[in-house]
Amino acid sequence: MLREFLTRLRFFLSRKHPADLDDELRFHLEQCTQANVANGMTPREAHRQAVIAFGGLQSTREQCYEQRPGWLLERVYKDMRYVIRRLRRAPMFTAIALVTLALGIGATTAIFSVVEGVLIKPLPYPQAESLVGVWHAAPGIKGFGDALSCSASMYFTYREKSVAFQDIGVYQTSGATVTGLTEPDVVPTLSVTWGTLQALGVRPRAGRWFSQADDAPGSPETVVLNYGYWQRRFGGNPSVVGRALTIDQHPRTVIGVMPAGFEFGNNPDLILPLQLDRNQQFLGGFMYQGIARLKPGVTLRQADADQKRMLAIWLKAWPPPPGYSRAVFEKAGFGPKLQPFKQQVVGNVGTVLWVLMGTIGLVLLVACANVANLLLVRAESRQHEMAIRAALGAGWRAIAREMLLESALLGLLGGALGLGLAYAALRVLIAKGPQTLPRLSEIGIDPLVLVFALGISLLAGLLFGLIPVLKYAVPHVATSLRGVGRGFSHGREHHRARNTLVVGQVGLALLLLVGAGLMIRTFQALRSVDPGFTRPEELQLLRILIYPGQVKDSEQVMRMQNAMLDKLAAIPGVTSVALAGDAPLEGFGGNNTLYAEDKNYGVGQLPPVRQFRSVSPGFFKTAGTPLIAGRDFTWTDLYEKRRVAIVSQNLAREMWGGARAALGKRVRQGYNNDPWREVVGVVADVYDSGPQAKPPAFAYWPALKDNFGDEPVSATRFAVFLVRTKRAATESFLNEARQAIWSVDAELPVFRVRTLKDLYDQSMARTSFTLVMLAIAGGMALVLGIVGIYGVIAYAVSQRTREIGIRMALGVQGSELRRMFVREGLLLAAIGAALGMIAAAGLTRLMSSLLFGITPLDPLTYAMVPVFLLAAAALASYVPARRATIVNPVEALRSE
Amino acid sequence: MPPSKEMPPSTDLLQGTLDLLILKTLSLEPMHGWGIASRIQQVSKDALQIGQGSLYPALHRLQYRGWIQAEWANSENNRRAKFYSLTRVGKKQLEAELSNWDRLTTAISLVLKQV
Q1: Chain B contact for A54 (CB, 8 A cutoff)
Q2: Contact status, residue A542 vs residue A720, Cβ threshold 8 Å
Q3: Which residue of B has its CA nearest to A390?
Q4: What residues contact residue B105 under an 8 Å CB cut-off, 6+ apart?
Q5: Quick one: which of A216, A219, A461, B82 is 20 to 30 A from A46 by CA?
Q6: Distance between CA atoms of A638 and A282, rounded to whole angstroms?
Q7: Would you call A395 and B5 a contact, using CB atoms and an 8 Å cutoff?
C-alpha cells in the first residue's frame, strides 16, 4: 500500500515527456500510411484511411497517461488547481461559504470536545473503569436522598472482609488554614484513609503516599501536597518533602507531592490522613464518601453481592451509636449500591451535553443546507458551460468529480477555520463556563477531536456537494442546452431543490428556536420562584474560622463575633448584619434526624433527616426571609443559652399542620442526651439547593447553645457574616469590612468573600449555560434560515426579471408583484415552520429534564416562535421583492 | 452513459489476453508498436486486429509494471521509433501467464466438450 503510493508519488513528481508519446503515435500513423500505400492506395487516400483507423488521437494520449502510476495524483492536482482558481474568482461566494461552514463546524467541534472531555474520555486514573463509588441503599431512612455514603465502621468492614475490592478507602473534603508561610491561607483539603490513593492508583511524583501506619491514630502527623499548591507555594521545590507545615495550628511533615493533573473530589491543595480509630466506631455516622477499585475481572454485580454479604456482617459486628437501638439499623434495610466512579463524577450533566451536541449538529446541517443552496445557484449559472463541456467530450464523471472536489475543499478549509474558532470558543467556555461542569480542565482539542473535525468537514463537504452533483452532473445534455438559452423563464421544477433546502432550514431553525424558547421560559420560571431571600446582589458574605487553639472558650468566640458584627454594622451604607454557620445556597449546612416531643416513635423507627443551620439574631431580617409566626432569636437567648429553635414553614406544616401550631412545640436533634428546645418562630421556606429543587425542611438553632451533640457549649466557629448593603462587592466596602473584622482579631483570615448573588447565579448556572448555548444555536440557525429565504427570493426575482417586465407591461401593479414574491417566501417558511413544529413536538421531550415549571409543549413558546419566524421570513422576502417593482419594463424585457 | 473519452477497446479480447499477446510477441525480438500490431494481425491471419487505442495504453501499462522496457532506435526504414523489449521480470511473467493460459484453455475446452 505504502510502496504503491510511493511509486505513484515518484511518477507524480518526475517530469513527463508528452513529446515522446506524440512521436511514437506519429510513427505508428506513418507506418500505417505506408502499409496502405504498399496495398495500392494513393498517398492521400492512404493517409486518410490511416487516420480513420487510428481514431481519436487525444483520447489515446489520455489513456496512455492514465496508465502512469502517478496519474491519479496528477489528476487530483490539476482539478484542485482549477477548483482553487474558480473559488478565487468568486470571492464573495467563497467567503460566505467558508464563514458559514467555519461557524457550523467550529461550534460542532467545540461542543464535541466538551462531550468528549466530560463524557467519553476515561477518568485520569490508570484502569479507571474498575473504580467504583461505594454507596448504599437505605430505604428505611428518609431524607438522605436515594444513596447513603459510608460510615467509618463500614470502611473497616469492607477493608477487612472484602473479596471483590482490590483497594477501598473513604474520604472527606474540607478546608484548613495554613500558617507560617507568607500569609495565613485557607485551602481546600481532602482527608483520606489508607487505601484511597491506592485505589485511585496515582502515585506521588515525589516522596511517598500514606501507608497504613500513617493512617493509624496517634502516628506522626503527615501531609501530601497537591501539584498546584506545591507549584504556587513552594515554586516546585523538590526539597519540600520532609519539611514541616503548620496546618490548622498543628505541625505536619510533608511526605509527598502528587503529580500534575491529579484531580479528585474538591481538587484539594492538601491531602491529609483521616486516622480513624477502629475502637471508637459505631454503626452510624455516614459522613464519608467511599471509593474502591474492583479486582481484575470482577463485575459490578459480583461486587454488589460481595457488598451485600459484608453489610450483613457489619450490622452484627458493630455497636449502635449511644441512644440508638440496633433495630433502627436493621429496619433501615441497608443494601449495596455501587456506582461506576465516572458516573458519579459526571453526574447528570450528560443530558445537557447530548442535547447541546444534537442542537449544534442541527446548526451544522442548516449551515450545510445554506452552502448547498449557494452551490446550486453556482451550478445553475454554470449549467450552460457544463452542457457545452459535456458536448465537447468532457465526461460527466469528470464534471461531478470536479464539483465534489470543490465542495470537499470548501469543507476542509471551513473545517480548518472552524477548528480555530473551536479553540477560541473552548478557551472562553473554560474561563466562563459553569463551575459546576465536571472535568472542566480535561476539555481540550486532542487527537480524537481533530479526527472528529476532519470527519465532519469531509462529511459536510460531501453532504452539500452531492446535492448539486445529483441535480446537475447527471447526463441530460440536450435539455440543458435547450433550457438555459437566453431569456427563458425558469420552470418551477428548477427551484425544487433549492426550495426543499430552504424548507428544511426553516424547519430546523424553528426546532432550535423552540428549544431556546423553552430554556428562556425555564429561566423565567426559575427567576420567578421566591427563593426565600431578597436582593441577593446586596448581601455580602465573608467567612471566618476561629480555632479552639486560638480561642478556647465558646462563649468568648461568640462575643468576638458579636463585636465584629457591631463593627460591620457601623460601616456606612450597611443596613443589617448577621452571622450563621452557612449562608443560603452555600452548601456547608449540617443535617440530622429531628425528634418532636409530641410525636411517638416506635422502636427502630427514625424520624426524617432535616437541614440544620445555626444563626445569630437578625439572620432572617438580613437575608430577607419573612417571619411567618412567633419571633426571631435574641442575643439574650444566645448568651443565656435558652433552649429555643426556629423552624421553616414547610416543616411546621408537615409536623403540626401549620405555623401557629408549631409555636411552643419542643424538638431536639438526634441523640437522646440532647435537651428539648422550644419552637419560638416559624420562617418562610428557603430554596437552599437552588430554585429548581424543592425547599428543604429546616431547623434553625441559636449560634451559641449548650448541650448540642457532644459539646457542653458550642459556638459557630466556622461562620459566615451576612452584610446587607448597596455597596456589596465594591473594593472600598470589602476593605472596610476586612478592617472591621481585623479590628477585633488582626490574625484572622477572611475568605470566601462573595455575594449571595454569586451563589444564586451558580445554582442556576446549568440552566443559564444551556440557555445561552441554545440561544446561540437557535440564533445561528435563524440567521442562516433567513439568509436562505432571502437568497431564494432574490434569485427568483433576478431570474424572472423578464417575466416581471411582461407582467408590468400588461399593467400589473408593483404592490401586486411584491405580494407575489412575499407570498412565495412565506409559503416556504410556513411549510418549514409546520414541519419544524412537528419535529419540535417530538424532540423537545428529550430535554424535559432540563425544563422547570413548563412542559416541553409549552403553548406560549409554540405560539411565539412560529410568529416570530414567519415575521422574519416575510421581511427576508420583502427586501428582494421590492427590487422587482423598481424594474423598468423595457429593460426587463431586454435583460439577459 | 453517453460516449466519452473512455473508449471501449477495439477488440473483444479477454482482459489480460492483450498483455499476454504483447509479451509473447516481444519474446522473439524487440519491436515497435506498429510492428507488434502487424505481427499479431499477421500471425492470427487477420483474426486479431489490435487498435492503437488499446495497444499503446497496454504498452505503457506493461512498461510501468516493469515487464517491458523501451528505447529509441532506428527502424528498418531508418526512421526513429520506440522499440520495446522484454525485461527479466517480463520473461518470468510471460512464462507464468502462458502456463495460466494453458490451464485456462484446457479447462474451458474440457467443459465445452463435456456439456
Answers
A1: yes
A2: yes
A3: B4
A4: none
A5: B82
A6: 32
A7: yes
Alpha carbons within 13 angstroms on the beta-carbon side of residue A326 total 7
Q: What is the mean pLDDT of residues B15-38?
A: 86
Indicate the pLDDT class of residue A892, thresholds 50, 70 and 90.
Answer: low
User: Which residues of chain B make contact with A395, given a CB cutoff of 8 A?
Assistant: 4-6
Pick from A387, A314, A383, A332: nearest CA to A153: A314
Q: Tell which of A11, A34, A60, A73 to mutate to test the B interface (max B CBs under 10 Å).
A: A60
H helix runs in A490-634, sequence order: 496-528, 554-569, 619-623
Contact state of A60 with B52 under an 8 Å Cβ cutoff: yes
Give me the phi and psi of A576, to 5 degrees please. Answer: -165, 145
Question: What is the rounded distance in angstroms from the CA atom of residue A193 to the CA atom of residue A290?
Answer: 10
Q: Is B42 exposed, middle or buried (0-12, 13-18, 19+ CB in 10 A)?
A: exposed
Angle at B95 between CA B93 and CA B99, to 5 degrees: 120
Q: Name the DSSP class of A263.
A: -
What pLDDT is stored for residue B115 in this prediction? 60
Residue entry with cell 427502630: A604
Residues 34-73 of B with CB under 8 A from A: 34, 37-38, 51-53, 56-57, 60-61, 64
* CA atoms of A757 and A768, how far apart (whole Å): 14
Q: Which three cell numbers stand for residue A364?
A: 451544522
**What is the distance of C-alpha A865 from the center of its chain?**
25
List Cα–Cα distances, A366 to A88, A399, A404, A517, A834, in angstroms.
25, 26, 19, 19, 17
DSSP symbol at A141: S
Q: CA angle, corner A604, sides to A602 and A606, nearest 5? A: 80
Single-letter code of the amino acid located at A286: F
By residue count, chain B amounts to 115
pLDDT tens column, A272-319: 998 888 888 888 778 889 999 999 989 999 999 999 999 999 988 888
Query: Per the CB < 8 Å rule, is B5 touching A62?
Result: yes
Q: Note the Cα A703 to chain centre separation in Å.
A: 39
Cα A407 → chain centroid:
31
Q: What is the pLDDT of residues A323-345, one digit of tens each?
A: 777 887 888 888 888 989 988 88
Question: CA A32, CA A49: separation in Å to the nearest integer?
Answer: 9
**Please, which residues bridge with residue A294 across strands?**
A165
Which residues are A594's β-sheet partners?
A669
Where is A405: in which H helix or E strand?
Answer: helix A396-432
Mean pLDDT across A243-269:
87
Instruction: Determine the pLDDT at residue A893.
Output: 65
Task: Write the DSSP assignment of A206-222 as a string of letters.
Answer: EE----TTTTSTTSPPE
Enclosing H/E stretch for A565: helix A554-569
Instruction: State the Cα–Cα distance between residues A298 and A156, nearest whole angstrom.
Output: 21
Q: Is A6 on the interface with B (CB under 8 A)?
A: no
User: Quick check: A201 and A292 in contact, CB under 8 A?
Assistant: no
Q: Does A394 touch chain B (CB under 8 A)?
A: yes
Q: How far is Cα A224 from Cα A675, in angstroms, rounded to an integer?
A: 41
The β-bridge relationship of strands A250-257 and A222-225 is: parallel
Report d(CA A676, CA A682) in Å as an integer: 17
- Give the bridge partners for A681, in sequence order: A630, A646
Q: How far apart are the first and last CA of chain A?
A: 53
A475 and B1: CB-CB below 8 Å?
yes
| Banded pLDDT at A59 (limits 50, 70, 90) | confident
Instruction: Write the CB contacts of A640 (distance below 8 Å, at least 6 apart in sequence).
Output: none
Q: Determine the Cα–Cα distance for residues A525 and A41; give it in Å rounded to an integer.
A: 99
Contact by Cβ (8 Å): B58, B22:
yes
Which residue in this structure is represented by grid cell 477493608?
A: A159
